[in-house]
Amino acid sequence: MACTAAGLSLGAARRTSQPEPISPQLDQLLDEIERRACRYFCEESHPATGQVRDRARTVGTDSRRVSSVAATGFGLSMLAIADRRGYLPRGEAEARVRGTLEFLARHPGHHRGFFYHFMDMSTGERVWDCELSSVDTAWLLCGALHARMHFDTPQIRRAADDLISRVDWRWMLNGAETLSHGWTPEHGFLPYRWDCYSELKAMYLMAVGSGDTRLPASSWYAWNRPVRTYHEFTYIDSAAPLFTHQYSHAWFDFRGRRDRYANYFENSRAATGAHRKMCIEMSRQYPWYGPDMWGVTASDSILGYQAWGGSGYPPDGTLVPCAAGGSLPFLPRECGAVLATMLQRYGARAWGRYGFVDAFLPGQEWYSPDVIGIDLGIMGLMAENARTGNVWREFMAAPEARRAMKAVGLG
Fold first, then answer.
1. Which of 125, 179, 283, 326 has a 20 to 30 A CA-CA distance from 202?
2. How far is residue 317's CA from residue 294's CA, in Å, rounded to a whole number?
3. Could you give phi then psi for residue 227, rounded to 5 degrees?
4. pLDDT at 195
5. Coil, strand or helix: which one is 218?
6. Is the CB of residue 296 less than 8 Å from the CB of residue 308?
7. Backbone torsions φ then ψ of 114, nearest 5 degrees
């Protein structure tokens, strides 16, 4: 596996303005997936702070108090979707977004604009001695920017702009060309860097496009882009789970755009196709895998949380609904067939009040007792983009997004 050389360009720059058409039956299922995901981001957020529980039980009440700043970011976007689709009474989504953003804007728990990965959902205080996370802060900022563009009220604009503008991206470089994974007050910067293709694209674009300490466009080209070939698919990939090809695309619209290396939308389409083919080839070992039943990514498992599909983490037959759900815009027919088949075949064992459980292993009759906020979030946002492109349309109207894309050659 070698890194791309200058001039190698993967994926044609197909100009696409509308999502691919989907069937009425799939549209109905995706509407229910979005509706139930929105229920999660309402019921599992703190009424005073708006911070979203990292994970929750599929049945019964949950006393865990840990929120994820990334889940809160996805939740801000899901509230914008709920407002547009009428899932909540008029004005409720706006009030929830305003409260969430104002709490974060005035909360002293950030450092240089970055937030801790995990926080107590009622106080916003750091838990588990976790790090100030660069990428998880980026998901919060993406949600804040989307919410600002959708609701466009003075209070929401003010709080969102405060969160976005105060992030000190240059500090997070720690003297190098690529961003650090994070920082802790006990040990300083983490020894890991965002220096190879992954979910990092949105983070770098936010860093290039916003704030007084935004990064130069050269930072976009400072990370490596390894190329791999799997059967007929050639694409940039770092042997990481499938979600790394999804998250940035939830907000940034890469369709029809290409830098000197790739059309990243087509790259994710190829990565999803390769992943599907890999799972189909494993159907002799795991007979429930097949053309309409595939998909693994970082998730819960019978062995605990696993980065399925990444280097050193071969699948064990686990199925993860957000693997296909998070790739809906890339292969809507194939991904939609997976979700419909899962619901038809496994029913209430894999489906509950918030939609699909996080993961399940049919061969051992194991079904996760939890859902995870970011996994529901990526399914909800990508379902909306596959249906209407509305998240892309609203987010890409922001000057920060347009500025970043133009600066790195994707405008």
1. 125
2. 9
3. -110, 135
4. 98
5. helix
6. yes
7. -90, 150
